[in-house]
């Protein structure tokens, strides 16, 4: 995914999120994630959320979608989680799309994800990341609450080890309980980048008749 940063949009989303989440415990994460999603002008945001997971980040994502005219989908595991999530976001004036079911099963129905947020405290969170169907130009994945002691076995390389995607870069930020962020690109002809691809070109010397194969 070619990230074209728009500082003005990022700043607007940041300010709006501060106004809505400034008193929340995890507002620092919400503001950062909101400005990232808005600044990169993502069009399809997906998050996996469950009861007790905190909603400041969710509000930040909804704010970002307002600025990008994008789609925001939240996957919740049960009706209890849905009711809690919807109640809090409606108070904040947000109405994202909510789907009830196991994230691992529902990921196959969501195509072209640009921005994905999961909570490392959820069971099999790395499996959810691995099953995501990303935009054919790549995407950004965010894993929150990534305390190094509790997620020591987690690796972005393992998320993209099937050959469909490639890890472009990743970074861990000590914000809140920890944010692990990765920029994921795709492998294959649909990617807009030719980085890492090579092809053979045949060249014939017209004077001598010799043929050469050049890898370019």
Automatic annotation (TrEMBL):
Gene3D superfamilies: Vaccinia Virus protein VP39. InterPro entries: DUF1442, SAM-dependent_MTases_sf. It holds the Pfam family DUF1442. Coiled coil: none annotated. It comes from the Eukaryota. This is Ankyrin repeat/KH domain protein. It comes from Gossypium hirsutum. The gene is LOC107963666.
